[in-house]
Amino acid sequence: MNPERTRKTKITAFAPVIFMVLGICLFIWVLSLLGQNTRYFVFWGDSINVTAADLANAAVRSTAHFNWIFIALFAIVVYIYLSEIKQKNYKGIVAALSLYGIHWLYEIANAVIQSVFGYALWTVSPESTSFILLVGVSWELSMMFSVAGLAMSKLLPEDPKKRILGINNRVFFAILNAAFFAIFEIFLAGTPAFLWVYPWWGAIPVFLTTYIPFFLGAFLTHDASPQKQKRFLVIVWGAVAILLAVLIPLRII
């Protein structure tokens, strides 16, 4: 086989993915231009949020705002998982745990950034939650992410090789879901509940560096062999457990 032809074939195969990602970035950028004077949507961080971020940093794992929604949400998530297990939707459970594990690695990294540089990339306010787990994730957000991979995996076609607009459907829906979550975060950043401090951090880097890996991890492990699924989950959740066990006692996060 001609190596040059093989290389061109690979480039051609990736072209639709690149165009889709760039198209979404352009769409978000245009939205940011159109919505730069709105009160309800925030596209980029602002140093004006540092005071609120300081208050949030001081409230990590404080029980001052605890309320019973904590228990209710946990019960709902347990019910969802047990229902899916009873239905033997193991692929959905794997997608859920994969996204949730990646989410925790990102939250740990975000908390480390706060410890090193003074402010995290994203911060949740204490008034908006019953409990702040780490500086960037509240209990309510964490419970949402615990089922996000499961919920969105229900969009996936039965055939893992089916292509949509020339893109493998697992990759297509990963990018599409990443775009939805990133655009929704524009609204969240416009509320007092969710804070971006750095002016170079916003919807576009969130889409590219955060949500695409979340959903790619969830949807690609969804169809992996049981051995690969187990290996992935053990590595990810093992890393999460070790990092939390080390960094929390050291008061780094």
Lay out the secondary structure.
Layout: H1 3-34, H2 50-58, H3 69-86, H4 90-117, E1 123-124, E2 132-134, E3 137-138, H5 139-153, E4 163-164, E5 167-168, H6 169-188, E6 194-195, H7 203-222, H8 226-247
Antiparallel strand pairs: 1-6, 2-3, 4-5
What does this structure look like?
- It is a single chain.
- The protein has 8 helices and 6 strands.
- It is mainly α and 253 residues long.
- The strands form 3 sheets. The chain has a two-stranded antiparallel sheet. The protein has a two-stranded antiparallel sheet with strand order 2-3.
- A hairpin with a 2-residue loop joins strand 2 (132-134) and strand 3 (137-138).
- Helix 4 packs parallel to helix 8 (226-247).
- The protein is globular, with a radius of gyration of 19 Å.
- The termini are far apart.
Q: Please give the count of helices.
A: 8
Order of helices and strands: HHHHEEEHEEHEHH
Rounded to the nearest angstrom, the radius of gyration is: 19 Å
Terminal residue distance: 52 Å
**Which strand order does the major sheet show?**
1-6
Mean pLDDT over the residues: 94
Strand content: 5-15%
Shape, principal axes of CA atoms: globular
> What percent of the residues sit in helical stretches (DSSP H or I)?
55-70%
- Note poorly predicted spans: none
Major sheet size, sense and barrel closure: 2 strands, antiparallel
Number of strand elements = 6
